[in-house]
Design brief:
InterPro entries: ADP-ribosyltransferase_ARG, ART. The chain is an alpha+beta fold and 258 residues long. The chain has a single domain, classed as Toxin ADP-ribosyltransferase, Chain A, domain 1 (Alpha-Beta Complex). It is built from 9 helices and 10 strands. α4 crosses α7 (133-146).
Length: 258
């Protein structure tokens, strides 16, 4: 009996060492319209925002060391590859660097998306506490420039550690920048506790501007709205199918309104 107990302890230690997620519990989260998301589309104020960027970026670099560090790294990475990338003339260097920064390191996009999900809690929250204003604006503009109207993609998104719940025909948003893949097997590598099959008409392929082009990433903006068309359970995995249903934003041009 003593040997059996010791064997089980060693087995658990081995599993835990081989898989850091062995003891991770799965959270349940409702998929909804993400009401606290900062979802500005900057409609009608792009030029005014651009006039604010230099000073605003200087302020955010001082307040947000993670953003400052990875922006600098992304700019260096982009300089090495920009001559090899065919891009629309409207897509400027800062747009490309913003996409590169987003894809470069997990720490930046996780902190960025966590902030995006909460910055719409109030206008004051956005104005005073959201120190990713420039990155948010530039990524939104990059997606707008790269977006081809009436072009939709069927993509996949794997999630580890969270089981989303929703009801058939609900209207929902991711409420953040949602990374998806054109490659189903690639998406599975990111987790299968929840696995999304998504028809997106506002998501944009960004592999040319990604630090990891092999992921075949399509980036979906926070404001795209979806209808839940199917929810199924496949083993321990929740499969949710979403079809694009336009866009929805609570905010517009908030920084220049002051």
């Amino acid at each position: 009996m003593e040997h059996l107990g010791l064997g089980l302890v060693l087995l658990v230690r081995t599993l835990a060492a081989g898989n850091p997620l062995f003891f991770q519990s799965i959270k349940e989260k409702v998929l909804d319209m993400a009401p606290t998301s900062f979802d500005d589309q900057y409609q009608g104020c792009i030029r005014m925002m651009e006039e604010e960027l230099v000073e605003l970026n200087r302020t955010e670099f001082a307040k947000n060391s993670v953003y400052a560090q990875y922006w600098t790294e992304a700019a260096a990475e982009w300089r090495e590859r920009e001559d090899l990338v065919h891009k629309p003339s409207a897509l400027r260097t800062e747009h490309a660097v913003a996409l590169m920064a987003y894809t470069l390191q997990e720490r930046l996009y996780k902190e960025f998306n966590a902030a995006v999900r909460e910055a719409g809690r109030s206008l004051r929250e956005y104005l005073d506490s959201f120190h990713f204003k420039v990155l948010h604006f530039l990524v939104i503009q990059a997606l707008r420039i790269l977006h081809k109207p009436q072009t939709c993609f069927n993509v996949f998104r794997g999630v580890r550690g969270t089981r989303f719940t929703a009801r058939h025909h609900d209207l929902v948003r991711f409420g953040q920048f949602a990374s998806t893949s054109l490659n189903k097997e690639e998406a599975k590598e990111f987790g299968q506790d929840t696995f999304f099959l998504v028809n997106t008409c506002y998501g944009v392929p960004v592999e040319k501007f990604s630090a990891f082009p092999g992921e075949e990433e399509v980036l979906i903006p926070p404001f795209e709205k979806f209808e839940v068309t199917s929810i199924t359970q496949v083993g321990k995995s929740t499969r949710i199918q979403l079809n694009s249903s336009g866009t929805f934003s609570n905010y517009n041009c908030e920084w220049v309104k002051g």
